[in-house]
What we know:
The chain is an alpha+beta fold. Helices cover about 20% and strands about 40% of the residues. Strands 2-3-4-1-5-8-7-6 form an eight-stranded mixed sheet. A hairpin with a 2-residue loop joins β6 (about 90-100) and β7 (about 100-105). It is globular, with a radius of gyration of 15 Å.
Amino acid sequence: xxxxxxxxxxxxxxxxxxxxxxxxxxxxxxxxxxxxxxxxxxxxxxxxxxxxxxxxxxxxxxxxxxxxxxxxxxxxxxxxxxxxxxxxxxxxxxxxxxxxxxxxxxxxxxxxxxxxxxx
Length: 119
């Protein structure tokens, strides 16, 4: 998830899927769609917009209950978090660091869970 300027501020730029078998997901999508993957340890892989149309990843988890996680970029996580809470949303996962940046997850109050990230 690399963004170098504010032109992407407040825009969807990543979708995270759940996979019960990371290696199987990698093999399946590489074979069917020709996507190339980057490994981020045993529990995470990503693929780029150049092959899929949007930057995405797979995290290891129960794919039966998991839904894709839409990730929005923001230049200022704290301001965005405050705006979410002020608008009636709730923070479901506090800000944490990952390779490439920081993010938090939120619920919009209408049943949708999303995430916001920044460098």
